[in-house]
Amino acid sequence: MRTVDVAIIGAGSAGIAARSEVVRVTDDYVVIDDGTLGTTCARVGCMPSKSLIQVANDFHRRAVFEEMGIAGASALAVDRGRAMAHVRRLRDAFVDAVLKDMRTWQEHLVRARAHFVDANTLAVGDDTIKAKAVVIATGSRPVMPVAWRPLSRHLLDTDSFFEADTLPDRMAVIGIGAIGTELGLALARLGVDVVAVSTNRAIAGLSSPALQELAAKLLSREMQIRYGRAMLEAGGARPLRVGIGPEAWDVDAALVAVGRRPNMAGLGLDEIGVALDEKGLPKVDPTTMRIENTSIYLAGDASGGRAIFHEAVDEGRMAGFNAARLESHCFQRSPRLAITFSDPNIAVVGRGWQSLTNDGVDFVTGQASFARQGRAVVMGESEGQIEVYVDRKSGKLLGTEMIAPRAEHLAHLLAFALSMNVTVHQFLQMPFYHPAIEEGLRTAVKDAAYKLERRIRDIEAMRCAEPPAGGTV
Q1: What is residue 345's DSSP assignment?
Q2: What does each C-alpha distance from 323 to 105, 123, 269, 320, 456 come to in angstroms?
Q3: How far apart are CA 425 and CA 390, in angstroms?
Q4: What is the spatial distance between Cα 432 and Cα 422, in angstroms, rounded to a whole number?
Q5: Residue 410 and residue 204: Cα distance in Å, rounded?
Q6: Are 414 and 426 in contact (CB under 8 A)?
Q7: Which residues contact 309 (CB under 8 A, 6 or more apart)?
Q8: How do residues 152-191 score in pLDDT, each as one tens digit?
Q9: DSSP code at position 291
């Protein structure tokens, strides 16, 4: 039996982040992982997907070259096999960077599967490890409906997609959350005939009916979008048939992007008396990441929260900080920040329209279109809309939803503002350079300010709190 201060189960983004906090307190720890190393983000998530999107968007840009006086656009072509090879080269470099950092602590890495014997004891392969505290950071895996598994040779998920040697001519994308939206549009821009299927209209997490409609309109120009429950079967003119009610499409393959599931099976938490919910997850305090009444902490995708890199890192650090000290320090969580790298980008920050409406919050909606926004017009990206949600009485920013050019940057500004708990009037005191896409965000916030119960003109909000040193005239 081996005894350590902290055992971390999982060497992904959350586990590595937990380790970074643990080593500040103790060198007596282990990281246990029996899977493929390199993090979900680097191997099959954020980085390879953005690499493919970049290729697709660069190729798509040729459509405006003639109008700009750039000749030869019609002669451009894409080799989808070489494009996928390029993506894998970049992916491998990102993974290698992660593995290089891990080599500095190889002596702490245990390559085996862990199972709880009790709250402080783990069966790890043929060994037993006793730890004062345990951090579970086992990540997640793509969901593949059981009924579709017999068709697996024609199905891809995000763990297998980037291993494809090339891309077929016709594909279905099942699910249009962030991943399905991003990859579906990228496939279409690389010349693949795409039909995207979703059981709901919340494209990339948008809840505003107006923005859902706009997103569907813009994306439908490049790929078909259908709503309903997909039925898959082999056969037809191509290997796979995808049907919704009376409609059916014959495709070469389907990308299944219907979500991810925490990797909690086999850990044995239920066997040591930890209560699990209907999803097989324990109750965790999101401000400490501790499973109640234990010295076990849960972080990252495994917690069942938002499966986003920065959230996993934050939770890993919180869990590692507390596990190393056997304490439950409370940490402030950052506002929700979700970005989909479609074109236009889609982003949701803080609370969305549906959440606020369901809870009966008294809020106003500030809106802005990019149709006549100077910088957007110059870039040829003048389609998009922002909605900013503001408390009617206090003027506090509550959240935003948007489908807009460069929304990845606009979303960060709103997230920073929410973190600082500012009002719209304080936000409007910030400088906005001209001409910049960010001016569209100011327009939306101004629109919200005009709708508040107590209105303050911009110039009034800019007045000094104290009179100038020389007195008044």
Answers
A1: E
A2: 19, 19, 17, 5, 48
A3: 11
A4: 17
A5: 17
A6: no
A7: 13, 41, 45, 46
A8: 999 999 999 999 999 999 999 999 999 999 999 999 999 9
A9: B
* Tokens of residue 275, six digits: 């209560």
Cβ contact 344:407 at 8 Å: yes
**2/15 Cα distance (integer angstroms):** 20
Q: Are residues 317 and 380 in the same domain?
A: no
Whether residues 451 and 431 fall in one domain: yes
**Pair (413, 275) in one structural domain:** no
User: Does this model's pTM top 0.90?
Assistant: yes
Please report whether residue 184 resides in a domain. yes
Residues 250 and 266 in one domain: no
Containing structural domain, residue 162: 146-258
Helix, strand, coil content of the chain in percent (nearest 5): 40, 25, 40
Cis peptide before 344 (omega within 30 of 0): yes
Q: Provide CB contacts within 8 A for 276, sequence distance 6+.
A: 269, 270, 282
- pLDDT tens by residue, 402-450: 999 999 999 999 999 999 999 999 999 999 999 999 999 999 999 999 9
For residue 246, is it within any domain? Answer: yes
The answer on 126 and 57 residing in a single domain is yes
Tens of pLDDT along 14-65?
A: 999 999 999 999 999 999 999 999 999 999 999 999 999 999 999 999 999 9
DSSP 75-125: G----HHHHHHHHHHHHHHHHHHHHHHHGGGGGGEE-S-EEEEETTEEEET
Place of tokens 């392969």: 125
Round to whole Å and give the CA distance between 404 and 437: 9
